[in-house]
Design goal:
The protein is mainly alpha-helical. 73% of the residues lie in helices and 0% in strands. The termini are far apart. The mean pLDDT is 87.
Length: 205
Amino acid sequence: METIQLVIEFVGTFAFAISGIRLAASKHFDWFGGYVVGLVTAIGGGTLRDVMLGQTPFWMTNKIYIICTALALIVVIIFKKQLVRLNHTWFLFDTLGLALFTIAGLQKTLFFHQPYWVAIVMGCITGAAGGVMRDVLVNQIPLIFRKEIYAIACLAGGLVYYLSALLHLGIEITVISSFVSVVSIRVLAVKYHITLPHLKNVEPE
């Protein structure tokens, strides 16, 4: 369980860091600015989760997350031309990070004996909060507050995790099912332009 948790967090950190650095690059940030945006994207949600759980933030107990973000920056710098050619690279890495961190948040919350409904909320926070911080840093409306399906995918993945656990499908199948659910919902929502209804301002008479 702990090994799976670490693997998920490492891969999720790299994926989210790539997405944050790519967005920073599109805004013409310098290397340091790109690193900061990538790091905040990668650790923001998990930090908020750990603080709410009364734990030391995960990146403060293992320097691998700082190093992982630095590696992501190097990858973006070296392979920037290849990444630019891939129009959906940012979306791909953001979606993978979203799914992986949602699962990491779920598992860590359950490890501290919290109920499943709390775990699902924490999974959503872990997956989506880093993206909110990223968008604020680059001065754009956070993706989670737009019509695009984002946090809903986290919640759906959490529910699938819960149902899989109820059916005693095993940790591997549970994790894979939750991962596929988050990724599939995000991909299908973007491909077919599935959105939530947006609020309409009511003008006074």
